[in-house]
């Protein structure tokens, strides 16, 4: 679809959601609203799953902020900041905010998937992300 800003003939849409895929950073994304599904120009909304016993690879989002609402799972550790020195715990019902340009890693040490509703101000399903492999060993 063309992501043009011309709204002539535009209508509201109901979207079944796109096929889930494994992101470069390691989570499973199921896009609902994106440039690819509805020609969104500035918004992504979808489900994000961190499988049991897995973690993301260290990364930053150079150009966008991200927000998540934890739907289900047990507990997820969110390591962030330079040196990944800040540790926060998220549980179902919690909201998470990830600013642009902040290195981070999410860890799901539980035996069940952690499922989030995720939104960001970058519309593409395969977001721009910069991997930071030099930080991976900093998270136990």
Summarize the structure.
With about 140 residues, this protein is mainly beta. The chain is about 5% helix and about 35% strand.
Structure write-up:
It comes from Zeimonas arvi. GO terms for molecular function: metal ion binding. By secondary structure, the protein is an all-beta fold. It has a single domain (21-138), classed as Jelly Rolls (Sandwich). The protein has one helix and eleven strands. The strands form three sheets. Strands 1-2-3-10-5-8 form a six-stranded antiparallel beta sheet. A hairpin with a 5-residue loop joins strand 1 and strand 2 (28-33). It is globular.
List keywords for this structure.
140 residues, mainly beta, Jelly Rolls, 6-stranded antiparallel β-sheet, 1 helix, 11 strands, 36% strand
